[in-house]
Give the backbone structure.
Amino acid sequence: MKKRNTLFFAFVFSAIAFVGCKSTEEVAENAAPVASENPISAEEVSTSDETTQTSDSVERAFFASIERTPCFGNCPTYTMTIYTDGFVEFHGTRGVEMIGDYTTTITDEQIARFVEQAEAIKFSEMDAKYDGPVTDLPSTTTAIMLDGKRKEVYRRFDYPKRILTLEQCFDDLIQSEKWISPTGETYPIER
C-alpha cells in the first residue's frame, strides 16, 4: 500500500511539474521583449535601436512617460508615453474621463516645456525611489530623457513635492489636447 501511494504521488508530482514547465515555456514565448535600461545619448535618440513600436506601426524614440497606479478611492489611473517626434500614447484605466487607448501629437515647444520643468526641479538629481511602509497609497513613476540619459523616479511616500510640478505637465496634456481612440472617438467630445 505504501509503495502504491508513493508511486501515485510521484505520478501526480511529475504531472504538475510537466504542466508547470509547459506554462512557463508558453509565457516565455509570448512575453514582450524588455526594453534596455541603458541610457542613450542625445545623438542616438533618433537613430537608436532603442525605439518602440507604437500602436500605429511606426518606430519611435522614447522621450517621457508617466504611470499612475490605483488607490482605494478614485485616483487617476493611467499611463502616458511621449515620443521625441511629439506622438503621445495614453491608456486610461480608471479615475479619468478617457478610459482605454487614445493618441495625440504635441509640439516641440511642449516637449521643451517638459525638459525645462524637469531641469527646474532638478529631476535628474532625485533618488530613483521614494517609498515607505505605507502600501495603500497610489504610486507614480515618471521618466524622461535628459541630456541623452533616461531618468526614472518612482514615488509613493516621503518624496520631494517639487516632482508634482513635472507630473502636472502630463496631467495638463489630458485636458489641453484633442485625443483620438483607435475607433475614431475623440476627447474631449466634439459637440
User: Anything to note?
Assistant: The beta strands are 51-53, 59-68, 77-83, 87-94, 100-105, 129-130, 140-146, 149-155, 179-180, 186-187. DSSP finds three helices and ten strands in the chain. Residues 6-50 have pLDDT under 50 and may be disordered.
